[in-house]
Design brief:
Layout (H helix, E strand, L loop, with lengths): L1 H16 L10 H10 L5 H18 L4 H14 L5 H17 L6
Helix pairs in contact: 1-3, 2-3, 3-5, 4-5
């Protein structure tokens, strides 16, 4: 159900919101399921997953750089979404990627 997928993405976001920083680790284990949710048919699920990704990127800063290169193309694709909730989440996530992870797409 879409509500379970949204609840999972919201749980990740709520766990990240209370943190001041994260230690470097294999955060790909968290990011991979979130990235799959970007393409969810329900816009609220996709927006929650993108928001959680932005929080993760903001907390990891430059340690998110390797993951950012794999995540940015999917985010840029979702940036064309007509739904405001998704577009707003994408803008916030890309802002977190660009400021914290020194994202370069080259």
């Amino acid at each position: 159900k879409w509500s379970e997928r949204k609840a999972a993405a919201d749980l990740v976001a709520s766990l990240l919101e209370g943190q001041s920083s994260l230690k470097p680790a294999d955060h790909g284990l968290v990011l991979r399921p979130l990235k799959r949710l970007y393409q969810d048919a329900n816009v609220n699920v996709a927006a929650s997953a993108i928001k959680a990704t932005g929080l993760l990127a903001g907390l990891l800063g430059s340690d998110f750089s390797a993951l950012a290169r794999r995540t940015a193309p999917a985010l840029l694709e979702k940036g064309a979404d007509k739904k405001a909730v998704v577009a707003e989440a994408v803008r916030g996530c890309l802002a977190a990627l660009s400021t914290g992870s020194r994202l370069t797409l080259a």
